[in-house]
Design brief:
- Pfam families: Copper-bind, OmpA.
- InterPro entries: Bact_OuterMem_StrucFunc, BlueCu_1, OmpA-like.
- This protein has about 280 residues and is α+β, with helices and mostly antiparallel strands.
- The strands form five sheets. Strands 2-4-7-5-6 form a five-stranded mixed sheet. The protein has a five-stranded mixed sheet with strand order 10-16-15-12-13, with no helix packed on it.
- The longest helix is centred in the middle third of the chain and has 21 residues.
- It is elongated and about 80 Å long.
- The protein starts with a strand and ends with a strand.
- The N terminus is likely disordered.
Length: about 280
């Protein structure tokens, strides 16, 4: 497993209530008073208790005070994209068992949704609710009930990633084809110019690179997209040359645009031809 650092300091003596702490039975070593949390010793089945995630009472709505902590969790998961974890919700024993099961599942799903929205690959995450079935402490006391209300992150396996594949946009008849391209994080996109004149690609007002023509050979410009989002572009000279790159944490298929039949083809009758390949096969 790739080395993972959460980069958080946990003070000795308050381990049970620290932002990250380990459930009993795991082989992961607790950090010292002055060291960052490292997961080198962790393996499948080890569990982290996330004590800094809070919800509104009887609700799956995450409190705003938890957002900064969840952003740190999302950053670490994005930096370690091969780990697969289960987001597990737990409640105390107040209320009916069915109600608590639903509440814990909804809270786990809320956390998963937040992490995915922050850019974590959804394939890394599964949401599970356990209700009141797995208490850590005695529910007869308020302190015990508070301890039992928790979200855990359990290491459940390794995610096998497909390498992002380069994909192509070509410029012909003063248009970008395709005008919208959906790619996974980490993809390199290449623009190839088949027009008789150069184009100057600009992303949302940020100057990019001029794509010169080379006697029908087709000059190129490449850019790698490492963060989810929608990136719009246009040519500073020819406004019809425009489009957008939609970057997602994961996609179900790769779409590759084929080059024109011969370099320099600029007839308006030429249609964009694409090859679609499903991820994993």
């Amino acid at each position: 497993m790739k080395k993972m650092k959460f980069g958080l300091l946990i003070v000795a003596g308050v381990f049970a209530w620290a932002p990250f702490s380990f459930a009993a039975g795991g082989l992961c070593k607790a950090p010292t008073a002055n060291s960052a949390l490292e997961l080198d010793g962790c393996k499948q089945g080890d569990t982290l208790i996330l004590r800094e995630i809070h919800f509104d009472t009887d609700s799956a709505r995450i409190k705003e005070m938890s957002f900064a902590f969840l952003d740190k969790v999302s950053s670490e998961l994005k930096e370690n994209p091969t780990i697969k974890v289960a987001v597990q919700g737990h409640t105390d024993s107040i209320g009916a068992a069915d109600y608590n099961m639903d509440l814990s599942q909804n809270r786990a799903q809320s956390v998963r949704y937040y992490l995915v929205s922050a850019g974590v690959n959804p394939n890394q995450l599964v949401a599970q609710g356990f209700g009141l079935t797995e208490p850590l402490a005695d529910n007869a006391t308020s302190q015990g009930r508070a301890s039992n209300r928790r979200v855990e992150l359990k290491l459940v396996g390794t995610l096998v990633l497909s390498e992002p594949k380069p994909t192509n946009v070509y410029i012909s008849t003063f248009h970008a084809k395709p005008m919208e391209l959906v790619v996974p994080v980490g993809t390199q996109v290449t623009w190839t110019n088949y027009d008789e004149i150069s184009h100057d690609i600009t992303f949302d007002g940020v100057p990019g690179t001029r794509i010169w023509t080379k006697g029908w050979k087709g000059d190129t410009y490449s850019l790698q997209f490492d963060n989810p989002g929608t990136y719009s572009y246009h040519c500073d000279v020819h406004k019809d040359v425009n489009g957008r790159i939609v970057v997602k944490s994961a996609v179900d298929e790769y779409v590759t645009t084929e080059s024109p039949i011969y370099p320099g083809q600029t007839t308006s009758s030429y249609e964009a031809k694409q090859t679609v390949q499903r991820v994993g096969g």
